[in-house]
Amino acid sequence: MAGKEAVVFILDTFPSMNSPYPKDSESTRLSQAKRAVINAIADQSWRSKTHECGCIVLKTGLTHHHMAVMDGIDDENALGYYFRKVARGKKVHVDLDDEVHFPNLIEFDLNRITPQTLRAISHVCSTSDESNADVMQGDLCDGLIVAADALYQRTNGKKFKRKIVLFTDAEHKVSVDGSQLQAVLDGLNKMECEVIVVGIGFDDEKDFSSIAKSSDDAGMKQEDEDNDLDQPDKITSNDAPTAEESDSNIKEEGDVDNEDMEDLKMESDSRARVKRENQMLLMSIAKETGGCVLATNGADIEDTLQRKMPSKAGRKNAQRYETDFHIAPNLTVSVRLAKMTEQCNLPSLKKGALQFDPDSGDALRDGAGELMTHDTGTLTRHFEAEQLEAGIENEVPLDMRVDAYRYGCDLIPVGKMDLAGINAAFAGDTNRSIEVIGYLVRDDVVDSGLLMGPAYCVVGGKESNKSRSAVAALAQAMDEMGKVGFCRLVKTKNGGAPIIGALFPMASDGGRHLQFLQLPFADDVQHFQNRDMDPFTGSEEQVQTCEDLIDSLMLPDGDFERVSNPTFKAYRQMIVDFAMNAVPKKEELREEGLPEENILLAAQPKPLCKFDATKILAKKASGKISAFLEEFPLQETKEDEKKKKYWGDDV
Questions:
Q1: Full 3-state SS string of 382-398
Q2: Cα torsion angle, 615, 621, 623, 628, sign
C-alpha cells in the first residue's frame, strides 16, 4: 500500500444544501459537509505532512480551477474573500461563457495542506438561489471530471493512494456526456482511485470495494445478475440528452425494471425525480470505481464519513522485527516481534526566536502574514558553584567534568561506558531474542495483578513454515493446558537490559500466535503496608443489587479498544481552530498567552463522562443506579469530623 495519500473532496453548494440538517436544527447540510471536509483534511495533515488534499466547490458562479484559471485570483485567501463577499450579499454573476471549460467551479489546488486552505474552505457558502440555480453550470459530473484530471496531473506516475469524496444531496440537474464520463471512469480505474459518495438524504447505500471489477473490454456494459439494487449497472456513452429529456437533463441506461420506470414517470415532484435519477447515476459511478455510496439518513455527516474514512491521526503502524525465539535448549526458531501497545504523548512544542525589524522594532512577517522565526538550540554551560556565588563565572572545561552516583554521603564517579558495559554483560548476544525459561499457571499470572505493558505480538517467521507451525503448536498446547511461558526478552537490536514477562497463547481468525506482557522484577514491586479489609457482611439483596448494576453497565464486546484519548482530541481541535482562525496580531506576542476561555472555546474539551456511549449507558442503568443508592444510602460527613484516621490515632 502506498504511503502517501491524495484526496480530492467535492462540495455541492446548490441552494438545497442550505436546508436545515437534521430537521429543525441550526446546522445545515452545507455546514455539516464543510465541517466533515475540514476535519478529514486536518486528519490527513496530522497523519503525515506528505499527504495531499484538494477541494472542488460546485455551483459557485465563479470559475477558477487548473483548467480555467481566472485573472486576479492568486491564492486561497482570494477565494475565501470571494465567498465572504457573497455571504455579505454580493450579487453573483453566473458564468455562461461557452468557451470556458467547466464553468462555475472553484478548485482549491491539490497540494500539501496549509492553514490558508482550511480557512478558505470554512468560508464556502451557497452562491446561487432559486432564480439562477438551474441555469448555473458546474454540476457534480463536471466536478468529478475536474477532480479526476487534477489527480492525474498531480500524481501520475507517483505512488499515491487516491480517493475522490463527494458530498451532495443530488437535488440539482446533471448533464452527462456519456463518452467523456466513461473515459474519466476508465482513467480513475487505471489510477486505482475510488469514488466515495456521501449522500445526504439518500435512500440506499452500497459498498462496492469488495466486488471484483470485470476485466472485460466492455467494462461498464457488463451487467451484474446478482445485483439486488434497482440501480443501473452502467452509463452509456452513445446518446446525448434530447429535448424530451430536458426535465432531468440526464441520459443513462441499465437494468432498471419497467415498473421502476413507471414509478419515475408517476412522480409529480420534479426535484424528487431528479434526486432519484442522480442517486442511480452516483451508484453506478461508485460501482465502476470500486467505491461506495454512504446514506446519511439523518445521522451526523462527519460520523457517516468516518465509517469509510476513520480518523487515524495519532495511530502508529506496528513494525515487525526478526527475532530469535529460544523455545528450549538447542531449539531456536526465527519469529517476528511487533509492539502492540505504546503510550502516546502530546508532541513537544517547537521553540523559535521571533525576528524583529532592527529599525522599527516591529515583528517581521512573511507574505502570508505569519510571524517570521529563527530555529533555536539549547546550550548547557557548567560553572564552579563556589566561584559563581562569588560572582565569578568560571566555566568548567569539558575534560574536567565527570558523572557520579551518590553513595551515602559521598559521590562515586561512573562513566557512560561503564554503564554500557553492564547492560551488554547481562544482555548476552547483541541480537533481539526471546528465551523461554519455564512455564506458569495462567490463572496465577493473571490474578497476580502484576502484568505490565507494552504488549508484544510474536508470530512465525515470514518465510519459514516450520517457524509458523512451531509458534502455532506451542500456542495451542499452552492454551489447552492453561499455561503461559515465563521468558526473557531483549528488545533492542544492539543488546540492552533484558526484561522478563509472560508469553500468552492467543487465537484469532488468522491463526494462533503468542503475546508477550512484561512482568516486574522483585525490585520493581512497590511494597506497602495496609491492614486487612473488613469482610462484607451485607445481605444477599445487596449482592444482587451490585450484580444487577454491573450487568446494566456492561459495554459491548471490543468497545474498550475504540476509546480515544479526549486530551488528544481536544489538542488537535485546538490546533486546527488556531490554524483556521488566526490569532489577532495584538494577541500573538502576549507573554502570558491567550486567555483560558479562548483556549477552551477552541479546544472544546469533552471528558469521557460526556461521551454519547457513557450517556446511553447511564440512561439505560438509571433504574439499577437508583436501586443501588437505596441499598447503600450515602451519609453526609460532618465538617468537624476527621476525614482520615490512622492506626496510630488509637495508640
A1: CECHHHHHCCCCCECCH
A2: negative
Confidence bin at 255 (pLDDT 50/70/90) = very low
DSSP 356: B
Q: Which residues contact 587 (CB under 8 A, 6 or more apart)?
A: 594
Question: If you average pLDDT over every residue of the chain, what do you get?
Answer: 79
Window from 53-57, 79-83, 208-212, 472-476 with minimum mean pLDDT: 208-212
How many distinct helices (H) and strands (E) make up the chain? 18, 18
Beta bridge partners of 512: 507
Taking the CB of residue 237, how many other CB atoms lie within 10 A of it? 18
Higher pLDDT: 400 or 344? It is 400
Q: What is the 3-state secondary structure (H, E, C) of 473-517?
A: HHHHHHHHHCEEEEEEEECCCCCCCCEEEEEEEEEECCEEEEEEE
Cell numbers 471484483: residue: 212
Extract the C-alpha cell encoding 7. Answer: 484526496
Direct distance between the N- and C-terminal alpha carbons of the chain, in angstroms, rounded to an integer: 71
Q: Which residues pair with 441 in a beta bridge?
A: 483
User: For 125, how many CA atoms within 13 A lie in the half-sphere containing its CB?
Assistant: 15
194-199 β-sheet, strand order? 106-112, 52-57, 4-11, 160-168, 194-199, 292-295, 206-207
Predicted TM-score (pTM) of this structure: 0.67
Q: Which three cell numbers stand for residue 317?
A: 503502524
Q: List Cα–Cα distances, 413 to 401, 404, 417, in angstroms.
A: 10, 4, 12
Q: 166: which 3 cell numbers? A: 463527494
Give Cα separations from 476 to 504, 506, 517, 518 (angstroms): 10, 8, 18, 21
Residue 287: which of 205, 217, 218, 216 has the closest Cα? 205
Give the separation between CA 167 and CA 308, rounded to whole angstroms: 13
Polymer length in residues for the chain: 651
Q: Is the pLDDT of residue 256 over 50?
A: no
Report the distance separating Cα 318 and Cα 340, nearest Å.
7
SS3 label, residue 308: coil
pLDDT in the model for residue 225 = 41
CB 289 within 8 A of CB 189: yes
3-state secondary structure 514-530: EEEEEECCHHHCCCCCC
pLDDT, tens only, 292-307: 999 988 888 888 888 8
CB 434 within 8 A of CB 337: yes
User: Cα 320–323–324 angle (5° rounding)?
Assistant: 160
Which residues have CB under 8 Å from 372's CB, separation 6+? Answer: 354, 355, 363, 364, 365, 366
Distance, CA of 307 to chain centre: 11
Cα 386 from Cα 315, distance rounded (Å): 50
How far is CA 72 from its chain centroid? Answer: 36
The total of other beta-carbon atoms located within 10 Å of residue 407's CB is 9
List the one residue out of 161, 165, 163 whose CA is nearest residue 198.
165
